[in-house]
Design brief:
The complex is a heterodimer. Chain A is of the alpha+beta class. Chain A is built from 3 helices and 5 strands, in the order βαααββββ. In chain A, 41% of the residues are buried. Chain B contains 3 helices and 5 strands; from the N terminus they run E-H-H-H-E-E-E-E. The chains are: A alpha+beta, B alpha+beta.
Chain lengths: 116, 131
């Protein structure tokens, strides 16, 4: 098991990610639009959550990624305390798993990776 | 649909300033000279395949799109300044229980050889939205 990484994505970070990535889908940045789409408010980009996972893999010094896969399972709201957990599934083969979940254990992203 | 169908194609140069801004946004400023693992989606947007454009091509309602999954295979490193040609394919489209699933595959070519391949699933689900 790798050392868990704790992170809370803020509304400001979501706006910064939108600007840096070019993904201006308004459900991430416009609260009125998000509510009309049936959400409680703006949500983080799935790809921002996936980037949080790759950041953790880097901090764990697992190695250079040769593959990285993620399944998005729940929406992530700004201000939600998150924990990124990971472990080797086959260390010799460089295979591992990574999940992003909130404090209540709701899984936001479930992923796997391989490194060399 | 059974056969994969080319959906979009673009080429662009990996912009150092955009890589820097992205690294800042994902707290990856100290990660060396290559692009971050999830930067490829940024390349798509800057190559003209915006979220709006993609939903148009898929004929999805942009307010009801779920990003179900995303995967990458990294074959060769990509650096700022590299010229990349990307070809986006739709490899499957199915509907069940009011949801439509589109499977996409993107091949990012550097000097005519695959550098990264990407696979993703987008879901149109009325009454739900997150990407």
């Amino acid at each position: 098991m790798f050392k868990p990484l704790y992170w809370t994505i803020t509304a400001e970070e979501i706006r910064e990610y939108a600007a840096a990535s070019g993904d201006f889908n308004p459900i991430h940045t416009d609260p009125d639009y998000a509510q009309k789409a049936g959400l409680k408010g703006c949500i983080a980009h799935g790809m921002l959550v996936m980037a949080l996972g790759s950041r953790a893999i880097r901090e764990w010094e697992a190695g250079d990624l040769t593959s990285y896969e993620a399944r998005f399972q729940a929406m992530t709201y700004p201000g939600e305390p998150l924990v990124v957990k990971g472990s080797w599934t086959d260390e010799e083969a460089g295979k591992g798993s990574v999940t992003v979940q909130n404090e209540k254990g709701e899984i936001k992203m479930k992923g796997t990776f391989t490194v060399k | 649909m059974k056969e994969k169908q080319e959906l979009y194609r673009y080429s662009c140069t990996v912009d150092e300033g955009k890589v820097f801004a992205f690294k800042q946004a994902v707290s990856a400023a100290d990660t060396g000279s290559g692009i971050p693992p999830t930067f490829l989606t940024v390349l798509d947007f800057h190559g003209g395949l915006s979220f709006q454009k993609l939903t148009e091509l898929l004929q999805f309602d942009p307010a009801c799109v779920l990003h179900g999954s995303q995967s990458y295979k990294y074959i060769k490193p990509i650096f700022p300044g590299d010229r990349i040609e990307a070809v986006v394919y739709m490899t499957g489209r199915t509907s069940k229980r009011g949801m439509t699933f589109a499977k996409l595959e993107t091949v990012y070519l550097k000097e005519n050889h695959p550098a990264v391949t990407s696979r993703s699933t987008l879901i149109e689900q009325k009454g739900a939205a997150y990407v």
